[in-house]
Write a structure and sequence with these properties.
Number of domains: 1
Largest sheet: none
Number of helices: 18
Structural class: mainly alpha
Distance between the termini: 49 Å
Number of strands: 0
């Protein structure tokens, strides 16, 4: 009888232990599936594997969230009222646009592809970035995926067949935007542990190799705006770092300034080279760079877009980047000009002035959160804020002449923002808890 009772007690204990470890196991599984999805996200292939990883990640993230709300496992902190309110306003305006969309079927399809999947992507990576190791793992996955794609691009470009960005990615513009999104994460390689990867010789060599790959891949894209966006990323990061860590900069200014000056010179030379090449290809031989900019086909596009916005400034025409693609192509006689080619004009054209306000509020709320991280006394939290602000600036600058808040680039942007925000909020909470513990001791 005693043996039976002991056996039953052992079963109960084992069952309780299994229950207690369920949240941790789910978080580990979520990190694995989210990492797979993040690695495949910038590619134009492995669609089935990407979809499976996304679906599994969404299910696991929602399971972790449900356990958290029931009091089991990690308590997932809120990203903040300002971010949630702005996100609700932007999403609400997008959903409301179905009532007056000029192409209802297209708008309904975009609800699934852009809005629903985008919100799920935010949730996945906000929940997945639960601690330092998860953060470092996800950063390593992004950089590893980028390195592989960049090497493949260089190898195919050097081969007789040439490089087709549409085969491996969603086109040249999307590929160059992906490069801009990746660039701020290189900062983590130069940051000291535990949040960064250290500043040893091996890490510096890896950072140098990845930076070289970034420049090569950007040049292969033949995109002009990528150089301005990359310059904005590194200028933002270096300026904020100089302000935040003034004492460190003062001790060894040349150690930091010399590489930055060299980098900006390289970016400027590449920009001039690409601009001259585009002018030679698209315009007569005697055309200057100034004339090429003056005759850019996006100028009449923006005039036409502004006229369409004035016709429906409050409501827009319906959610979806290419909601007026047929009208634009017909009026401008150019199949490439199928959307507004400016992120903010695109939002206004789609979902009206209140949708634009919601989108601007969301960006402002994210930026303000990252500024708060940057101003923290803790260096690790400040680094998260710095990377986040550099990411925002780079993405916005890149989209001044285009709109890549769509498909893989949109999900990559939301995933990286959610990673930074999710880990930053948890780190901020942990710092506050330690401070309160010391104060009460």
């Amino acid at each position: 009888m005693i043996a039976v009772e002991g056996s039953e007690q052992a079963k109960v204990t084992t069952g309780a232990a299994m229950i207690d470890t369920t949240p941790a196991r789910l978080r580990r599984a979520l990190l694995v599936t989210a990492g797979i999805y993040l690695a495949l996200l910038p590619t134009g292939w492995a669609t089935a594997a990407k979809s499976i990883a996304f679906g599994a990640s969404a299910a696991l993230a929602l399971s972790v969230l449900a356990l958290s709300r029931s009091g089991r496992g990690e308590s997932i902190p809120s990203p903040g009222t300002a971010i949630l309110t702005a996100l609700f306003l932007w999403s609400g305006c997008a959903l409301a646009s179905a009532a007056w969309s000029v192409h209802l079927a297209y708008t309904l399809g975009e609800f699934r592809h852009e809005l629903a999947w985008g919100l799920l992507t935010m949730a996945i990576f906000y929940i997945a970035a639960c601690d330092r190791e998860a953060w470092r793992t996800l950063v390593a996955v992004v950089l590893g995926s980028f390195a592989l794609l960049a090497v493949l691009a260089a190898a195919f470009a050097a081969s007789p067949a040439g490089w087709d960005p549409g085969r491996w990615h969603a086109g040249v513009g999307a590929f160059s935007t992906f490069l801009v999104l990746v660039a701020p994460l290189l900062i983590a390689l130069l940051a000291p542990a535990p949040i960064g990867f250290g500043a040893g010789k091996q890490t510096l060599a890896i950072a140098g190799a990845l930076l070289a790959l970034l420049l090569v891949a950007a040049r292969l894209s033949d995109n002009r705006m990528v150089w301005i966006a990359l310059a904005a990323v590194f200028a933002t990061a270096s300026t904020l770092a100089a302000l935040r860590w003034r004492a460190t900069l003062a001790r060894a200014p040349l150690r930091w300034l010399a590489p930055l000056v060299a980098l900006f010179l390289v970016l400027g030379l590449f920009f001039a080279d690409v601009t001259q090449e585009r002018a030679r290809v698209s315009f007569p031989a005697e055309t200057t760079m100034a004339q090429a900019f003056a005759e850019d086909p996006r100028l009449p596009l923006w005039d036409f877009t502004a006229a369409r916005i004035r016709e429906r400034p409050w409501t827009g025409y319906g959610f979806g980047k290419s909601i007026l693609q047929d009208e634009l192509r017909l009026a401008l006689h150019d199949p490439i000009l199928s959307h507004a080619h400016n992120l903010f004009a695109s939002q206004w054209l789609q979902i009206g002035v209140f949708g634009l306000i919601g989108f601007l509020a969301l960006l402002a709320a994210l930026g303000w959160r990252f500024i708060g991280f940057l101003r923290a006394r803790d260096d690790a939290l400040a680094l998260i804020g710095l990377i986040g602000l550099a990411l925002l600036v780079g993405f916005l600058v890149k989209n001044l002449t285009d709109d890549f808040l769509v498909r893989s680039n949109a999900k990559e942007f939301w995933a990286l923002c959610a990673m930074l925000l999710g880990y930053g909020v948890r780190l901020e909470r942990a710092i506050g808890a330690r401070a309160a513990s010391v104060a009460n001791a």
